Structure formats: structure tokens, C-alpha cells
Amino acid sequence: MPRLRALHPTWPWLAALAAGLIAAWLRYRLVEPAALAQACAAGAPGLRCALRAATVAAFHSHGLTMVCAVLAALALVTRWRSAAILALTAGAVGLVLYSFEAGAAALLVGALELARPSPSGAPDTPEV
After folding, report:
1. pTM, entire model
2. Three-state SS string across 37-95, please?
3. What confidence score (pLDDT) does residue 128 get?
4. Domain with 33 in it
5. How many C-beta atoms lie closer than 10 Å to residue 37's C-beta?
6. What is the domain count for the chain?
């Protein structure tokens, strides 16, 4: 398992990158194309229109902004690594899906919390 151990410090960043790529796909393939917007507005059935509607609702209702803000606050208050990873990932999604301010704050808080050394001075990786 030496490979997994070597990958451990980078997997939160890879998760944020993957979430950002998925959000970019949602934005540029489902939300922005005018032809798909017109087809969905005309009542076209299908998974694409349902996914498009859910994505648009996430940022029009400021739900994504609230998720980014709550996760950033949770990471700051609790200093949990898992909360920082979630804030980093939600921030990457928020930056792509029209929640710029909250996404940038969550990404920054998550990145800073992950960069901080553990209180005991030892790395966060478990010893085997």
C-alpha cells in the first residue's frame, strides 16, 4: 500500500479538481447551451432536463452559496480535516457554478485548513 500512502496528501486536491471538472461539464454542457434550454423549456422529458433544472435551481436559490458558506464556517470553527476537504470541494464547484464569492471563500478556507500542520506537530497521515 505504499502507493495509497503517497497519494494521501494529494487526494483532497484531486477531489476538488474532479468536482470542478464535473461542475464545468454541468455548466458548459447543460446550463449554457441555448438549444437545450429551449428544449427543456418546451417540456422535453429526460434526465438532461431534470439535471439541468436541478443545477440551475442550486445557484438561483443561493443554495450553493449557503453550502459553501456553511462548510467554510464549519472548517474554521471545528478545524476538522474532513470539513476542510468538503469546503475545498464545494468552493471549486461554487467558483464554476456562478457562486463566485462564497466559492472563493470556501476554497480559500479549505486550502488554508489543509495546509495547516496538525496541533501535535505530527502529520495527519496515519502510521502503519
Report:
1. 0.82
2. HHHHHCCCCCHHHHHHHHHHHHHHCCHHHHHHHHHHHHHHHHCCHHHHHHHHHHHHHHH
3. 42
4. 2-115
5. 15
6. 1
